[in-house]
Design goal:
Blueprint lengths: L3 H5 L8 E4 L11 E4 L12 E5 L8 H13 L4 E6 L8 H9 L3 E6 L4 H35 L4 H12 L2 E6 L12 H12 L21 E5 L2 E9 L5 E8 L6 H4 L2 H40 L6 H10 L8 E8 L2 H7 L7 H22 L4 E6 L2 E7 L5 H19 L5 E8 L5 H19 L4 E4 L4 H9 L3 H21 L3 H10 L4 H8 L3 H15 L6 H21 L5
Parallel strand pairs: 2-3, 3-4, 4-5, 13-14
Antiparallel strand pairs: 1-5, 6-9, 7-8, 8-9, 10-12, 10-13, 11-12
Helix pairs in contact: 2-3, 4-5, 4-8, 5-8, 11-12, 14-19, 15-19, 16-17, 16-18, 17-18
């Protein structure tokens, strides 16, 4: 870095008088130099040394002071004024202005040619630039060597941190920490919270510095800290991840972002892109193979145990253990997204990020219980096989799901997930059967409760009996003859007679309790009940009629899920 003090050491400037800001000379860096006369406008750049003869200011000290003020506002490094032709001394108000703004103001003898000063400064700038380029090239080569040596991410980040004197973290494009197992669990949770709150990553809208070299970075202000977001780009130009640089608290971003650090971060982003390309190719292949295997296992894609076992051993899965299948489906991701204060990301990007977190929490829950897990996902539906040992599948699935719900409640407080749990696998063929049971239980649970619900296959015995009824043609005709008038009336009038009957039957015919549960006046409820009787030609006082109507509604609800509203 070339400073004002470095330039003043040259013999050419031996006769220069520093009027103000002499103590700043060792800290004020120089990046440019030019000769400027009135007006300044936008011709002066930051960290530029300005040379002037003050032409046009001979009879107007105030005009020269205004000129000095314009140069100061341009964030120039210093102002050198040649006296002896147009002005013969510096106005007192100009000196006071420079002192007040901690600005370097110098007097240059008229005999010293500006061309010589410009030549000398440019020569020094070129020398400095060459040194920085050589250092930058060495760092670039060192980073590439780390890639060729197949060093891990921790070594890459440690090397970059040594060069820029700041802590850095690598994430994917959603803000999820890469190689998160190297960080403390508390820190990882804090980071997840920043991502969920929309603090990280930020949309590329805020240039961190007016320098064109630095406008590709984004600056995030968080709790009195400046965080620099550096995109790690794909070939398409879109970010595949981010480097987050935590600038030390005592340094402001513009001071931290020197050209040297900027070049280092650019090289770092390029190197990390290479590292990610190699890692992603390996991980995506591994995850796809594992996910495809679990999906085939669930859907009966293997003919024999030996065929499945040969694939499982390559993927480090153990099929000889006892497993139970669990299927989960988040119900309200869309509404949660719409409630967010910051909606910078598209819903699809946010949804993928949330599903990633859910899968991660499932893996963590299994790990904390010391159990094996096999997992796959189809859109939003997550299918997993959880190892169980001495406990029943009911007890063990409860422990597992309790951990997930507790942790997700901290990350996504209002998320609703429906769960279906199958029975324990006893034989190889039970992998498919347990999946079928879990999916059936999930669908039945969603019919009965639209919100957070866990349904075990063992709890669906009544529903399975009802489902068998729908397969009988005569039973289906009876059910539809009974229920169809109510369905049509509800569709036309939006009165929910079916829900009214369900509540009435639940409270064993108690009109007062039913009215309170539905927030209806007693007379309104009685009108609905009479309407049900008139439409169905059934009496709600007749136990047999009540049984038929209750059976028809329950069968219609269950059968509608699996048989398209019971219609062929």
């Amino acid at each position: 870095m070339l400073t004002v003090a470095d330039v003043l050491k040259d013999d050419l400037l031996h006769g220069v008088e520093v009027v103000t800001g002499e103590k700043l000379a060792t800290k004020k860096k120089i990046q440019w130099i030019s000769v400027i006369e009135l007006p300044v406008e936008n011709f002066v750049r930051k960290n530029e040394v300005v040379l002037t003869t003050a032409i046009g200011c001979e009879q107007d000290p105030h005009l020269f002071t205004q000129f000095v003020e314009d140069v100061i506002e341009s964030e120039a490094a210093a102002l050198m004024v040649a006296l002896g032709r147009f002005i013969f001394d510096i106005p007192r108000e100009a000196i006071e202005l420079a002192e007040k703004n901690h600005f370097i103001l110098m007097i240059v003898p008229w005999e010293v040619r500006f061309a010589n000063i410009v030549e000398m400064v440019m020569k020094e700038l070129n020398i400095t630039a060459n040194k920085e380029r050589e250092k930058s090239e060495k760092i670039q080569q060192d980073l590439l060597n780390l890639i060729l040596m197949e060093r891990d991410l921790e070594d890459l980040l440690a090397y970059i941190e040594e060069q820029i004197y700041a802590k850095i973290y690598l994430t994917d494009r959603f803000g999820n920490l890469m190689e998160s197992d190297q960080y403390a669990r508390d820190f990882e949770q804090q980071w997840k919270q920043l991502v969920l709150e929309g603090v990280l990553p930020t949309k590329h809208i805020t240039p961190a510095n007016q320098d064109p070299f630095m406008q590709k970075f984004d600056l995030i202000h968080y709790e009195k800290r400046d965080i620099l977001q550096v995109p790690v780009l794909q070939i398409s130009g879109e970010a595949q991840g981010y480097l987050f640089v935590f600038i030390p608290e005592h340094i402001k971003a513009p001071s931290f972002l020197t050209h040297n650090r900027t070049h280092i971060l650019e090289h770092a982003a390029t190197t990390i892109a290479l590292w990610l390309s190699r890692k992603n190719a390996i991980e995506e292949t591994k995850l796809r193979l594992r996910s495809d295997f679990v999906e085939e296992l669930a859907k009966g894609g293997f003919q024999t145990y030996e065929q499945a076992q040969s694939r499982a051993s390559l993927l480090q899965y153990q099929l000889n253990l006892a497993y139970v299948c669990i299927v989960g489906l988040p119900e309200n991701l869309k509404s949660l997204y719409e409630k967010r204060e910051q909606t910078i990301d598209s819903f699809e990007r946010w949804r993928k990020s949330m599903l990633y977190y859910m899968e991660e929490e499932m893996l963590y829950a299994a790990q904390s219980l010391g159990r094996k897990i096999m997992l796959t996902r189809d859109e939003e539906m997550i299918t997993l096989y959880l190892e169980i040992q001495h406990q029943t599948e009911h007890e063990y699935a409860t422990d597992f799901l309790d951990i997930i719900d507790r942790r997700l409640n901290n990350l996504l407080p209002d998320v609703y997930i429906s769960w279906g749990i199958g029975k324990r696998k006893e034989r190889f063929e039970d992998f498919q059967e347990s999946y079928r049971q879990a999916k059936f239980a999930l669908q039945i649970g969603r019919v009965k409760d639209k919100h957070h619900h866990r349904t075990w296959f063992e709890q669906t015995r009544v529903d399975r009996v009802l489902l068998q009824l729908t397969k009988n043609v005569e039973m289906r005709e009876i059910i539809m003859d009974t229920i169809e008038p109510l369905v049509q009336y509800d569709e036309e009038r939006q009165m929910d007679l079916i829900g009214t009957f369900v509540a009435f039957n639940q409270y064993r015919g108690n009109v007062s309790q039913t009215a309170r549960s539905l927030n209806l006046h007693r007379q309104s409820l009685l009108y609905r009940l009479r309407k049900i009787e008139s439409l169905t030609n059934l009496s709600l006082n007749d136990p047999d009629h009540l049984f038929l109507l209750d059976l028809s509604i329950k069968t219609w609800r269950v059968g509608g899920v699996f048989h398209g509203e019971l219609k062929d």
